[in-house]
Give the backbone structure.
Amino acid sequence: MRAEHIEDGMSAIPTDRKCPFSPPEELGLLRDRSPIAPFLFPDGHRGWIATGHAAVRTVLTDSRFSHRADLVRPTLAMDRVEIPEVLPGMFTRLDPPEHNKYRKLLSPEFTPRRLSPMVPRIEQIAEEHLDAMAEHGSPADLVRAFALPLPSLVMCEMLGLPYTEHERFQHDSEVLFDLSASEEDTIAAWTSMLAFLNEAIAEKRAHPADDLLGRLVSSGELTDGELVTMAMILLMAGHETTSNTLALGTFALLEHPGQLAALQADPTLIDSAVEELLRYLTVSHIGPVRTALEDIEVAGRLVRAGESVTMSLGAANRDPVRYDRPDELDFTRQASGHLAFGGGVHLCTGLQLARIELRVAFTALFRRFPSLRLAVPAAEVPLRTKMVVYGVHELPVAWA
């Protein structure tokens, strides 16, 4: 997608990349000229695009910017077709105080204390899939063998959903996040996903269970519609973002042998490595979007009430004003403050789970396969440039 410029801004979000690990070049050039610039939305609305770290952080955290679906301009594939903009329980498209009801129910489920007992099971899942990968033999597609099934299975077990349906919900999720999906395919995926989750909710009501979805059902605070929507958000976000960070992160490590060697030599670097990979890669490359509820000045520009602001988290995480040598992958860097998980009241609910999964997965992968390498030239790795969540469609790897 080519970016057309309006005034000193843009009229389309670029998605093609010269480097597979860096945001589109046009976004960096725009950020260096102006951290927030005019943007023409697809529906003709004249708003803004924020690419600077401080500007993006302001828009994410200032309560005068709204995430309400009736105010923001749509950018997702699913918003192009005749399906509901907001379902009951779609807390990602609500502002406080309506948003608080759902966040209050979910937040206790994703605390470090609550997640800590899950670590041995996540480690077991990782080892089982690496066992299968070893048995399959070299070469293999890391996405299908490891990066996609690990967070998918973890999220299914946490929610209490049948993993036997993983091919179904993974396909539906991929279509819903595909910017080039047809209207027919999008509606079919949406319908399939809702049917799958409605079946699961009915099963929980008939047979109460002590899992996240079962506890939400038993709380009695939510309708079936709210439960389905919340489960859909958690399931889709819970496996799409982590699986793509894991696959793209492995690709980046294989292309940065110095950083990989440092991590293999000193496993205590894993925490800083995960944070740096989240900053460096930032797989959420379309949106988010907020709309000003009143006139607000952001980085010296006046955003008027009613104007929407789309943001590039990837460009913000490469801002040289915030990070020294931002285009370098450096595991000794203090990458704290990155915006890969968003910010403000809509900070990613599952960020602690994602961190655990990434730490476990990278550690296990390179311990089991220390000679891991790409099985094809780097230029032949298929990139997810037309997807809401960036990453790789496949990652062919080999080992001795």
Notes: Residues 224-255 form the longest helix (32 residues). Strands lie at 36-40, 46-50, 65-66, 140-141, 289-292, 296-298, 301-303, 308-311, 373-374, 396-398. The radius of gyration is 21 Å. Confidence is low (pLDDT under 50) at residues 1-5, 76-81.
